[in-house]
Amino acid sequence: MSVPTGGVGDLGWSLVALAALAGVLLDRRFGEVPRWHPLVGFGRIATAIEHAMNRRPAALARSRIVGLIAWAITVLPFVLLTAWLAAVARTASPWLVVVLDAVALYFAIGARSLHDHIAPIALALRDADLPRARALASRIVSRDLSDAADEPIARAAVESALENGSDAIFAPLFWMVVAGAPGVVLYRLANTLDAMWGYRNARFAGFGWAAARIDDGLNWIPARLTAMSYAVLGQTVGHTADALRCWRTQAPHWSSPNAGPVMAAGAGSLRVRLGGAARYEGVDEARPPLGTGDRATAADITRALTLVSRTLWLWLGVLALIAAATQSLS
């Protein structure tokens, strides 16, 4: 007998669609939890484990093994706990599983937070308030924007909106549909560890290897579904053919196997030029170009957020249609 964990396998499409909508609406109404967010506590645990297990230099292979063990110690207990809670809820009522899935999705998804962090950058650029625009953009990207002009700031904001749309919205939603609350927890914690450990520097090149590769694996399907959604919606906010062409020709040159398709398709759909030069820790990095058309402006930031929002409602609409179809066939 399989252990119920939520998702389509246990709940069916109708209840999964309801849980997804409830989680999105909770995020829309309340936004990010201002205090006592579970991920803050998880981050402290992850930091303590990393400090304990990554204290001295080691051979690359050994460091990777230690990093994998650290990843398992950090993530799996929370996933197993969530799976146990889902199993207990399932024995009582499927509606409790819906509630658990919706709450897990609410804590993992970041649609409102993404808008709240990025939309003010467009407003600052429109008001010609460069210092404020630089400060706001520096909160969401790691590149150096201390003396940036309008275009690099707008480009950074558009790239962040498109990429984080996949990481912070569509991937958690995908894993909720596939595996319920345990899938959401697995994805969000793995993604958090990638952000904390997945650097290619001396300290994390080996230790963070597992965190980076696991996150890549968990994001592979959601990223391509997101890229396809951006391309499809190009008919309403941009150009589908351009999106598909940019995805095909430009994404393979991008360093990230998942960010490349997402940002290339998004940039092509919006017909805006992204990628290119960016400064990190005082060093200029020549990144491959993405997209086509004009340079990024404040208006493109708003258009990118619109594309992400419409993609979210597209996904919810598809879930609702699948639920309705399965109901009519049952």
What is this structure's SSE topology?
Elements: H1 8-11, H2 13-30, H3 38-53, H4 60-92, H5 94-108, H6 111-126, H7 130-138, H8 150-197, H9 209-232, H10 234-237, H11 240-250, H12 259-270, E1 272-280, E2 283-291, E3 294-295, H13 298-329
Parallel strand pairs: 1-3
Antiparallel strand pairs: 1-2
Helix pairs in contact: 2-5, 2-8, 2-13, 3-4, 3-8, 4-5, 4-8, 5-8, 6-7, 6-8, 6-13, 7-8, 8-9, 8-12, 8-13, 9-11, 9-12, 11-12
Protein name: Cobalamin biosynthesis protein CobD
Transmembrane segments: 6-26, 65-86, 312-329
Keywords: Cell membrane, Cobalamin biosynthesis, Membrane, Transmembrane, Transmembrane helix
Please explain how this structure is put together.
The protein has a three-stranded mixed beta sheet with strand order 2-1-3. With 330 residues, the chain is mainly α. It is 73% helix and 6% strand. The longest helix has 48 residues, at 150-197. α2 (13-30) packs antiparallel against α13, α3 runs antiparallel to α4 (60-92) and α4 (60-92) packs across α8. It has one domain (8-329). The model has no long low-confidence stretch (mean pLDDT 93). It has 13 helices and three strands; from the N terminus they run ααααααααααααβββα.
